[in-house]
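Hi V.,

Quick status before I head out on leave. The structure for the redesign project is tokenized and pasted below; the design run finished overnight.
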């Protein structure tokens, strides 16, 4: 067996709202099959966007992180899209911007200090 790709699938309540949310963060819509499924891409990750069909959604202990060049640029994108976030700078690993997508999935942007 050879693995040729991967994705993380998120269950969402509104396909259009979720696709637009991740587009605003800079992900690209790779493919969409009506309101059945969509694939969003960023370097190194593919997110599957799948309708929850009314079932409760929650990311539980999963979070999705995107590395960014400057935290100021991330703050500007989040502010421009009215996304509430929490800033965390532990002084060691990086500057983190923690927030949630429209369905409560935990997402963060990080300006890593290890690069």
């Amino acid at each position: 067996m050879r693995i040729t790709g991967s994705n993380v699938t998120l269950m969402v309540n509104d396909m259009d709202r979720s696709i637009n949310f991740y587009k605003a963060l800079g992900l690209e819509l790779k493919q969409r099959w009506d309101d059945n499924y969509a694939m969003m891409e960023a370097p190194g990750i593919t997110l599957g966007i799948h309708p929850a069909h009314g079932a409760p959604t929650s990311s539980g202990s999963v979070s999705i992180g995107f590395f960014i060049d400057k935290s100021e640029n991330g703050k500007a994108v989040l502010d421009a899209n009215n996304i509430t976030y929490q800033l965390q700078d532990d002084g060691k690993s990086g500057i983190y911007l923690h927030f949630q997508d429209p369905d409560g999935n935990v997402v963060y942007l990080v300006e890593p200090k290890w690069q």
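Above is the designed sequence. The CA atoms of residues 7 and 46 lie 5 Å apart.

G. will cover questions while I'm gone.

Best,
W.
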